[in-house]
Amino acid sequence: MPAKKEGTKLDIPGNVIANMEWLRMRQGLSIGDIAAAMSICRNTYFTRKSNPGSLTLKEVALAARVLKTPARLIMYGALAEQPL
């Protein structure tokens, strides 16, 4: 069985994080900005990034506000394996 790769259909939580990171960088936001919006510290954000399965829907919704993107688009892009 092939290993899971970030950015593939086998790794939907990883795709959500990848979408959030892409939006964050495109908008010039810092990791601290996203972490604060998610009501978590930077270290917790890095934990979520390294273990995306621990990311909650509430955290995605909170991040979506500061990213000015509907959470459903962040999630849909991950599910459909399409860039935002």
Written account of the structure:
The protein is mostly helical and 84 residues long. It has one domain: lambda repressor-like DNA-binding domains (434 Repressor (Amino-terminal Domain), Orthogonal Bundle), CATH 1.10.260. It has helices at residues 12-26, 31-37, 42-50, 57-67, 71-80. Helix 1 crosses helix 5 (71-80), helix 2 (31-37) crosses helix 4 (57-67) and helix 4 (57-67) packs across helix 5 (71-80).
Question: From the 3D coordinates, which CATH architecture would you assign?
Answer: Orthogonal Bundle
Structural class: mainly alpha
The CATH class designation is Mainly Alpha
In round numbers, the mean pLDDT is 83
According to CATH, the fold-level topology is: 434 Repressor (Amino-terminal Domain)
Number of strand elements: 0
Summarize the topology.
Layout: H1 12-26, H2 31-37, H3 42-50, H4 57-67, H5 71-80
Helix pairs in contact: 1-4, 1-5, 2-4, 4-5
Please give a quick description of this structure.
This protein is mainly α and 84 residues long. The chain contains five helices and no strands.
Notable characteristics:
84 residues, mainly alpha, 434 Repressor (Amino-terminal Domain), 5 helices
